[in-house]
């Protein structure tokens, strides 16, 4: 290991995020991830920046209702509920591994990162 290497795989980071629950999709700047714990008393959360997790995803894009297909790029939009959809006004989050009907909301597997 090099003397300046901090983590071997580098797939987890500590971040300061308010009101996050374990399992939430989050972004740290432009880095997408999965909250591994709830926000602690110091405002810290451990974020996993790769892998596959299930998230609530909406079948919508910037133009309106739009079905989600396997392989579609998904984005995180903080102001939306749920936060993940095909709206490219958000932060690029990952890839859909399952489908969502147009205008529908489903919990699907998402590949985090890109």
Task: Give a written overview of the molecule.
By secondary structure, the protein is an all-beta fold. Helix content is 0%, strand content 44%. The protein contains no helices and eleven strands. The chain has strands at 12-16, 25-28, 31-35, 44-48, 52-58, 60-61, 64-65, 73-76, 84-85, 91-96, 105-112. It has a five-stranded antiparallel sheet, with no helix packed on it. The chain has a four-stranded antiparallel sheet with strand order 1-4-3-2, with no helix packed on it. Strands 6-7 form a two-stranded antiparallel sheet. A hairpin with a 2-residue loop joins strand 2 (25-28) and strand 3. It is globular, with a radius of gyration of 15 Å. The protein starts with 11 loop residues before the first strand and ends with a strand. 27% of the residues are buried.
Supply the number of helical segments: 0
Euclidean distance between termini CA atoms: 26 Å
Coarse shape:
globular
Residues in helices, as a percent range: under 10%
| Overall strand count | 11
| Mean pLDDT over the full residue set | 95
Question: What can be said about the biggest beta sheet?
Answer: 5 strands, antiparallel
Uncertain stretches of 5 or more adjacent residues: none
Physical arrangement of strands within the biggest beta sheet = 5-11-10-8-9
Tell me the strand percentage band.
35-45%
Alpha carbon gyration radius? 15 Å
């Amino acid at each position: 290991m090099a003397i300046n290497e901090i983590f071997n795989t580098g797939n987890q980071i500590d971040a300061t995020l308010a009101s996050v629950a374990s399992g939430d999709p989050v972004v740290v700047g432009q880095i997408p991830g999965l909250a591994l714990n709830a926000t602690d008393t110091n405002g810290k959360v451990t974020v996993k920046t790769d892998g596959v997790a299930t998230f609530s995803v909406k079948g919508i894009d910037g133009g309106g209702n739009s079905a989600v297909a396997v392989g579609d790029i998904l984005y995180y939009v903080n102001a939306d509920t749920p936060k993940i959809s095909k709206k490219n006004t958000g932060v690029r989050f990952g890839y859909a591994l399952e489908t969502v009907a147009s205008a529908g909301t489903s919990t699907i597997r998402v590949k985090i990162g890109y």
